[in-house]
Specification:
The structure is a single chain. This protein is α+β, with helices and mostly antiparallel strands. It folds into 3 domains: about 40-55 and about 200-270, 2-Layer Sandwich (Gyrase A, domain 2); about 55-195, no CATH class; about 275-305 and about 335-385, no CATH class. The protein contains 7 helices and 23 strands. A 6-stranded antiparallel β-barrel has the order 3-4-5-10-7-6. A 4-stranded antiparallel beta sheet has the order 2-11-13-12. The protein has a 3-stranded mixed beta sheet with strand order 16-15-23, with helices on one face.
Length: about 400
Amino acid sequence: MNTSSYPVSWMLERAAHRVLGVLRGVLIVLCACLSVNQPVHADKIRDLAQVAGVRSNQLIGYGLVVGLDGSGDQTTQAPFTTQSLENMLVQFGITVPASVRPQLKNAAAVTVTAQLPPFAKPGQNIDITVASIGNAKSIRGGELLMTPLRGADGNVYAMAQGSVVVGGVSAQGKSGSSVQVNISASGRVPNGATVERAVASTFSNGGDLMLNLNTADFTTATRIADAINRSYGAGTASAVDGGSVSVRGPVDPSQRVAWMGAIQGLEVTPGDAPARVVVNSRTGTVVIGSEVRVTPAAVAHGSIQVTITEQPQVSQPGPFSKGQTQVVQNSDVQVSEDGGHMFKFGPGTSLDTIVRAVNQVGASPSDLISILQALKQAGALHAELVVI
């Protein structure tokens, strides 16, 4: 191809397009690599930490549920139910003679509990939980009478009243047979309490704001402080310890609300979860973290079975011996050891390998608990073993 007939400017422009195309391809490859190297898991600060002073408060009260279909407290065994009802009637000008003891079957004494959320204001409604404290069989279909709910300081913060919603059901026949699904002696009243008093909050006060991490971790605390400083300038936040981050905030309460809302929206990659194995010895549940590793170890696991069989035999006396017929116990005890499996863990074995090896030998959750405890005692399990 003869290029002498083409203008020099055209040739330079064509070469420039080729160079730009090569650079564009390189940039695409670099962007792809950067996107791969970027952290794939990031959480918002609102999911990692809570603002100090912004918390819920527990409320509790004592009340009466009436309107039950004969499933209430038995007054002979729960006399406080009758006493409570008599005290309530006195407030309405009705006096029950001292010689009369009402036999109630449609009333039950209950405790009423609730969670007062932060910044709750008078007039707002909250959910309540109602639970029988006597011997009522069921509070299904009952009506909770007006009950004051008090806080830890003894002040009334809400008033509860309403129809109880019960998720359980129970039934019993005359022969004594009964069936029960869930619990019918407790229930809930959605929006059953009205807030009467607000809890003072320190959020609107001046000074620094403190973020308390849900799970204490030095790496996560440092990354939260760094993310805030990158967005709002150096010195805005500082990690106090592994569980708290101090943030400088404006004095104006309205600005503090917008300020904290913006900070909670920042995304932070939390630190790696600790290597931990949680074992529930009651239910046999085993949860193994993704960071759990096992050093080289060989595990032999066998199953010992003990079988005891009772075969009673009758011994008859001889004729005219005046003896008595007796039952002679004949016990057969057998001990067998089946399924003696042995498997080996290599260096740096991960969670997937552990689970796969245990499943291949057919170990039950209780067997897995024994294996993990033995590995921990041998020093081969590099994780914290938590037994609850």
